[in-house]
Specification:
271 residues; alpha+beta; N-terminal domain of MutM-like DNA repair proteins; Helicase, Ruva Protein, domain 3; 2 domains; four-stranded antiparallel sheet; 10 strands; 21% strand; globular; DNA-binding
DNA sequence: AAAAGCCCCTGGATGC
DNA sequence: TGCATCCAGGGGCTTT
């Protein structure tokens, strides 16, 4: 589920409430994707200074060290005034003076990892290879085009790989490629400079729009107060196989790329 | 170095 | 109703 917009919506819901909160306890449930890398008890007494985002990771700066959170495919974070009884899929609780932050993750592809610093090997193993932030100024059309020229893989899979630009998952990759009129199977190196610029703009547009309306709530995702997002209501191609394109009426197609579904309009995205 | 495949795990939808 | 099969938004790791 959670791609950049959902993680950013989560961050926006946490940063205000949690800044300055002191950790009073941490509770582990079933194992997540990676171990916490510290004793939960050792977090007690630390203060949350900030909540940042890098790609699809949330970075929680503590008075000493930081926590890296990842929501995997089905995770969501919710802030409760007091700690509710843990349910079947509640696998990590962080009790603070400002409430109980709870990770619910049915599939357990998510994780919470402690690292002593962002520059530490523990953190860099997860963050070190990440590409540019799509909504920051370092992400520019010209540099994007240069990066595309060096890769022969299909553009959809390059977007998902996250080593050129981060945060674009399956939904937003499909949607951005539709907006740019680019066939998802097109080799990245064959994308011209103007079309790369169009894709650059489409990525920014689709991600910004999704953040503004609370992300996409398919299956599990909700915001930190349990609220739904609405982007799934305005997708042009994602999960619309067999339905008419909203622009031209042609039937939307689905195909598999890298073991994932790709949706596209064969007319609007001719290559 | 880059690309392609393989999994981790669970639940919901679909089909027989 | 019951059971099997397929599918799902991620991404690190291994193999080619």
């Amino acid at each position: 589920m959670p791609e950049l917009p959902e993680v950013e919506v989560t961050r926006l819901g946490l940063v205000g409430p949690l800044q300055g909160a002191r950790i009073e306890a941490a509770y582990l449930g079933k194992p997540l994707r990676w171990p916490l890398q510290c004793l939960p008890q050792s977090l007690v007494g630390r203060t949350i200074l900030d909540v940042r985002r890098r790609g699809k990771y949330l970075l929680m700066d503590l008075s000493e060290g930081l926590l890296l959170w990842h929501l995997g495919m089905s995770g969501s974070l919710r802030l409760w005034p007091t700690r509710p009884d843990p349910g079947l899929h509640d696998h990590f609780d962080l009790m603070t003076t400002h409430g109980c932050l709870r990770l619910n993750d049915p599939r357990r592809f998510g994780a919470v990892v402690y690292a002593p610093a962002e520059s530490s090997p523990q953190a860099q193993q997860l963050l070190g290879h990440l590409g540019l932030e799509p909504l920051q100024s370092a992400f520019q059309p010209q540099g994007f085009h240069q990066a595309l020229r060096q890769r022969r893989t299909a553009i959809k899979q390059l977007l998902l790989a996250g080593d050129v630009v981060v945060g674009v998952g399956n939904i937003y990759a499909c949607e951005a490629l539709f907006l740019a009129g680019i066939r998802p199977t097109l080799s990245a190196q064959r994308i011209s400079r103007p079309r790369a610029a169009a894709l650059h703009a489409a990525i920014q547009q689709v991600l910004s729009r999704a953040i503004a309306i609370g992300g996409s709530s398919l299956r599990d995702f909700t915001g930190t107060e349990g609220q739904s997002g609405y982007f799934q209501l305005e997708t042009k191609v994602y999960d619309r196989e067999g339905q008419p394109c909203r622009e031209c009426g042609t039937t939307i197609r689905r195909r598999v790329q890298g073991q994932r579904s790709t949706f596209y309009c064969p007319q609007c995205q001719r290559n």
